[in-house]
Amino acid sequence: MQNITQTQKFKAIFYAAIIAIIINIIILTSAPIFHINAAAGGLFGLLRHLLGSTFHEYEISIFWASTTLPQPGTLGFFILFHTFIGFIMSFTYAFILEKYLIGSGLQKGITFALIIWIINSIIIMPLLGKGFAASNVLNITGMIYFFIANAFYGIIVGFLYEKFYKL
Questions:
Q1: Apex 102 CA angle, 162 and 123, nearest 5
Q2: Whole-angstrom Cα distance, residue 11 to residue 64?
Q3: Are 123 and 93 spatial neighbours (Cβ–Cβ below 8 Å)?
Q4: CA distances (Å), 37 to each of 10, 22, 64, 96, in order?
Q5: Is residue 48 over pLDDT 80?
Q6: CA 44 – CA 21 distance, rounded (Å)
Q7: What pLDDT is attached to residue 9?
Q8: CB within 8 A of 138, min separation 6: which ones?
Q9: Burial level of 6, CB count in 10 A (0-12/13-18/19+)?
Q10: Which residue would you say has higher pLDDT here, 68 or 58?
Q11: How much is the pLDDT for 2?
Q12: Are 109 and 97 in contact (CB under 8 A)?
């Protein structure tokens, strides 16, 4: 029974993550259409800041540049990175956090979205020198847009995970 439950959990979060990630990417990449700057280079910027010398020391940067993989700064890399991180966050939600959250899938998704936003706003962005919620580089519209994009991601993950898991 435990294996079936884990398999159901895996499938449920996998499908919920795909949908949430696609919608999040569409929202974030649509910001320029509305003349909104919502990109602050959060997690990737922090990883580059913390691990950049390691990437160079072990020639990971040189290897990556020699491949046909999307390069940093391109839309393809943005999509690849957000998809990878989206899956990590979604699986963290399903296999670690969800059991500690209260309420319906929708309520848990809202809480999950707030957790992500708080971590990004009070830890990641300040560590990069971008201020609370990237207030040093984004105007209020950009900050709200970024919050909304991430809220959609978290809410969709929580809501759909619950729905798919019960199927």
A1: 100
A2: 31
A3: no
A4: 35, 19, 28, 33
A5: no
A6: 16
A7: 92
A8: 37, 38, 40, 146
A9: exposed
A10: 68
A11: 54
A12: no
Q: Taking residues 138-144, what's their average pLDDT?
A: 94
111 Cβ neighbours under 8 A, 6+ residues apart: 101, 103, 154, 158
Distance CA 76, CA 71 (A): 7
Torsion of Cα atoms, 52 then 144 then 116 then 92, to 10°: -90
Extents of the domains making up the chain: 16-27+40-165
pLDDT digits (tens, 9 = 90+) for 75-115: 888 899 899 999 999 999 999 999 999 999 999 999 999 99
Given the structure tokens 């670690």, which residue do they identify?
Answer: 96
Q: Is the pLDDT of residue 167 over 70?
A: no
**Alpha helices by DSSP H, 31-74:** 42-57, 60-65
Q: Where are the alpha helices (DSSP H) in 31-139?
A: 42-57, 60-65, 75-92, 105-119, 125-127
Query: Tokens 């998704």 — which residue?
Result: 109
Q: Side chain identity at 99, as an amino acid letter? A: K
Give the torsion through C-alpha atoms of 152, 154, 160, 162, to 10 deg. Answer: -150
